[in-house]
Amino acid sequence: MSAKKSVRNRSVQVADFFSAGKEHLKLELLGGEAGLNRLVGESTINRPGLGLAGFFKHFPEQRIQVIGLAEHAYLDSLKADERKSRAKALFAEDVPCIIFTRGKKVYPEMIALAEETKTALFRTPLITKHFVNAATIVMENLRAPRLKVQGTTIEIMGIGVMIDGASGVGKSDAALALIRRGYSLVADDITALRRDTSGSIIASPVKVTQYHMEIRGLGIIHVPSLFGVSSVREEKKLDLVVTLVREDRKSEMPQGDRGSFTRTLLGASVPQVYVVIEPGRDIANVIETAALDMKLRRLGHDAEKELDERLMVLLTQGKDVSE
Fold first, then answer.
1. Could you tell me the end-to-end alpha-carbon distance of the chain, in angstroms, rounded to an integer?
2. What is the CATH code for 146-307?
3. 30 vs 96, 112, 127, 174, 245, CA distance in Å?
4. What is the Cα–Cα distance from 105 to 321, expressed in whole angstroms?
5. Residue 108 CB coordination number (10 Å)
6. With CB atoms 3.0 to 4.6 Å apart as the test, which of 93, 114, 175, 241 could cross-link to 31 if both were Cys?
7. Domain extent listing, the chain
């Protein structure tokens, strides 16, 4: 279970959108299946009101087009020949796909045009505004910058922690000990990362290995079967990177104060700590403590800074700091 770091192409096909949103968006493909390989140029969803009226100047043909209540009412008001003419002009713009909302009737001539022009045509029972909001989120997730890195990710009391380090250093063993303490696995060995619109890095598993771990000497285990459904998470915001370092390689660790290290992932800086693997040391306990310390720092409590300030007060007062 290993892979090289790779950046995912951000081009999104209609097929990707359909696959990602089929259940959540309740999409039904009615025609134009041959057009599923078309690319969607923008995350924004468009309602082609002026386009249906024949005005295509500044028309955003690279966006998914939605026929909502108002658009459907307008088409319904037209005679069949006129409706076909307006629909034909819309399809001629080579839009990625067209979606009817509210479960509205899809005209036979539009299904025929979808097949003829190889443009995917869908229907959903969702109210238009709800569909547009949900579909935009699906598109933003699909188009977000993505990266796969070697590392095991765990959620510890709301803190997303990725454990990385050289192969065989004990990442999965440390993660297994944390899972036994009641924390949750996000991804083992390979973690898929994406940067969302807020700039946060979201960690998730590679689908083929989701819910599984590889433990040396045991092989592959299915985590929720052994530890329950609460022992796994679909995804988690990445808050901390813990790098495990073998004792004989600790001289290669970067020098600096604790809290000064960061790992740059998809253009975002994530706090990083280094933990040296030593005989008898409880690495899971150290990782757990690092995560809890990160949580305290977010609440404004910095133990190191607090101790430094206390020592400075004592020293300026001429008191013995060893008392």
1. 53
2. 3.40.50.300
3. 15, 10, 18, 49, 55
4. 80
5. 11
6. 114
7. 11-143, 146-307
Order of strands across the sheet that contains 28-31 = 28-31, 120-123, 97-100, 64-67, 45-46
**Residue 225 tokens, joined:** 């079967």
157 three-class SS: coil
- Cβ(295)–Cβ(271) below 8 Å: no
Dig out the tokens for 31 from the structure: 């025609």
Class of domain 11-143: alpha beta
Residue 11 tokens read as: 């081009």
CB half-sphere exposure, 182, CA atoms < 13 A = 2
Q: Are 232 and 184 in contact (CB under 8 A)?
A: yes
Alpha-carbon distance of 294 to 182, in angstroms, equals 19
**Per-residue pLDDT reduced to its tens digit, 245-268:** 999 888 888 887 766 799 999 989
Q: Can you tell me the distance from the alpha carbon of 203 to that of 279, in angstroms, rounded to the nearest whole number?
A: 31
Fold match, 11-143 / 146-307: no
